[in-house]
Amino acid sequence: MNFLTVMLLAFAMSTDAFAVAVCKGVSLNVPKLKDAFKVGLIFGLIEGITPMLGWLCGFLTLHFTEKWDHWIIFLLMLFLGSHMIYNSFHEDDETQEDKNTKKQSLFLLVLTAISTSIDAFAVGIGLALATVNIVFASCMIGAATCLMVTLGILLGKKIGSWIGKRAEFLGGLVLIVIGSITLYQHISA
Q1: pLDDT for res 100
Q2: What is the pTM of this model?
Q3: Which DSSP letter does residue 189 get?
Q4: SS3 per-residue string spanning 2-45
């Protein structure tokens, strides 16, 4: 994967966390940069660790899947992208809960971060099958998530839920495109 693909992947992985952050920002009166950045760091760290864990699982099973790796990457990206697109049209309970909650405990915040990073775990499995520096990709995913969550909280009042779900739709579309490009490159080679 080239640098641009890793960057697109990183921002695609951060869109669901961004949508949650926008909803959290809507519920706050005047979010402070320091507090928004702390939440962004929590989400970024968790979102950066999960692809490495997925990569490790994928790497351990690599010799079983070498012949079908491009199909596995394509199907994972297609499934995750489709799921994100589906979610962009439906309001889930967690997002509604975030809108109604004024303050979240650290425990609830970590659980929310974990729930938005499960897709990054699955992408990590796919990355074990592709030629990619997992440490670089994970750092980029974590940094993009930290940035997007911080911005989502700060801009929540201004942009509301209007952009949050659209960002998740775009992120899903990007994942499907990355999976399709990977499949095309392997089939045409």
Answers
A1: 44
A2: 0.72
A3: -
A4: CHHHHHHHHHHHHHHHHHHHHHHHHHCCCCCHHHHHHHHHHHHH
